[in-house]
Description:
Layout: E1 3-4, H1 68-73, H2 75-84, E2 90-94, H3 99-108, E3 118-122, E4 125-130, H4 138-147, H5 150-160, E5 166-167, E6 175-179, E7 184-189, E8 200-209, E9 222-225, E10 232-236, E11 242-247, E12 254-256, E13 268-278, E14 288-289, H6 298-319, H7 323-339
Antiparallel strand pairs: 1-2, 2-11, 3-4, 4-6, 4-7, 5-13, 6-13, 7-12, 7-14, 8-11, 8-13, 9-10, 9-12
Amino acid sequence: MFKMFRHLAPSCGRGNLALNQGNLGGRRLDTGDWDHNGQIRPQNWSLRDEGAPRDSENMSEPKTVLDIDRLEQDIDRLHAEYQSASPYPHIVLDDFLEPDAAKAALAEFPSVNPEQWTNYIHVNERKFSNTDVSTWGPTLQQILDTLNSPRFVQFIGKLLGADDLIADPSLEGGGLHQSAAGGFLNIHADYTVHPHNRTWLRRANILLYLNDDWKPEYGGALELWSADMKECVQKIMPVANRVVVFTTSATAFHGHPEPMRCPEGVTRRSLALYYFSVEDDPMVRSTTYRSRPGDGAHSIAIFADTQMLRAYDWTKRRLGLSDEVASRVLGLRDRMKRKRPQG
């Protein structure tokens, strides 16, 4: 059973938050039913549903990665919690996946392979992303299929109070995310329109954290900031089987800006997905990074890097570029920087 996460402090300080680590005991898994285009696969359903088709050779009850029935039954309360959250609409759910699904996802999460992961290494972030689903394990693929299925997307729409949301099968900017010690993501508001689908307006983010035994001293907490960027209002630790859903807007500022302090071999891992609506002519805005009070001279670098990223976004949209090109350039620049003699 998933449970609501209650924020324990009204604002982000530098101190630690005592947060529920979640329960990861439970059930076995089967293959999912939805492919990445929202089509039904000829196998057991990945979501509980009376009357769901079963494999003729396996009449046992279909196993699941997510009990979506419970989410749907509690939608009125969840919608109210979401809409009333501060500093902008969001919700945090612990014990989100079925316990064995969470265990399997933790075990399957791949390490960073330069051939399979895109690097985002520049002034405003240091992380890696993998959108090549063929390199994911079967449980991670099933989770993706479930979270992009029409039924779950409809649930997200009810949470937001928005009709006709769609998932993004290309996982643009999403997929598996991973960062090691020193990794960070400066505070920002996300891009508004899909780079390769001009009429797709981004409406919501979902972040599923897959970090077993994550300790507060590692850092890496997701920070939600006020619209005026004067204060951090919420701080959410990225513990295993915790989900965060929040509305995408010009003032939905978030990130984990402090370089992490996790030990060698420990990384901050998550699955990020985005949901869209189709609009006639949505306003295009690239990802906007903002400095925090106290960032001082570093604010200049944050602003300059944001302008460079804005130019890249403009080029990407018009030429149909993928982030793999930028990844190779950023990776080369980072390696050259590291080889420079110090002092």
